[in-house]
Give the backbone structure.
Amino acid sequence: MQKFMQIAIKEAKKAQKIDEVPIGAVIVVNGKILGKAFNKRNSSKIATHHAEILAIEKACKKLGDWRLENAEIFVTLEPCPMCAGAIANARIKKLVFGAYDTSGTNHNLIFEILNDTRLNHKVEIVGGILESECKQLLTDFFKKKR
């Protein structure tokens, strides 16, 4: 898990270099990377250009299917509700994230979304992988902004 989270962190650092919130995502199937991305919301001026959404799009194109049933997604920050919905819709089997989003209203909301009994797909969730490193990226970024 740490290997792929390190790659997500590298993606987050790419976002930071272009003054985007440093969040990165990597999608893996059987140890092979199908998609990786970083936040581009500010630079693209498109609200949905979160790292998770962009990585899902790349993985779907590479696989040639919207279903990513055997995939795992590694994200440096606990996903927002939009991204949690996309993860469920793509049928991703496992979500692994680094830092918990304790600063906003999204904290623990993904657990409610992805474990809702009304959904026909369940996502395994693992949080806190390389949490300190992921959290530090965000802390440093926002300190510079203030």
Observations:
- The first helix runs from residue 2 to 17.
- The chain has a mean pLDDT of 94.
